[in-house]
Amino acid sequence: MASYMLQVAYTPEMIKAAISDPKDRTQHISRVIENLGGTMYGMWYCLGDYDVVTIFELPDNEAAAAFSLAVAGGGAVKEMKTTPLLSVAEAFAAMYKAQQCGYAPMKIDR
Q1: What is the rounded distance in angstroms from the CA atom of residue 84 to the CA atom of residue 76?
Q2: Helices 26-35, 61-73: crossing angle, 10 deg rounding
Q3: pLDDT tens digits, residue range 74-89?
Q4: Domain of 45: which CATH number?
């Protein structure tokens, strides 16, 4: 399973609706992720550029794209960002692979 972070910024209309009639969407969002074969670890409201952050696992990028498309197509968000997350073990494995991949920066003559 792959881990992801979804950050969502609501439209002004959605914020107005949420203020006038607050609803906990945690259960609904969790079920949507489960329908795609995944698990939600948490959902938080936050201050700053985004209004909500959700951390979840899904089987693959296709399922993550489906979730992102469904959220974006719902009309309640003005901006969102889906970020794949690496475990510490995955990050270390990538670092070891980077040591062995043979990359060298291009030399620049000045």
Answers
A1: 22
A2: 140
A3: 999 999 999 999 999 9
A4: 3.30.70.1060
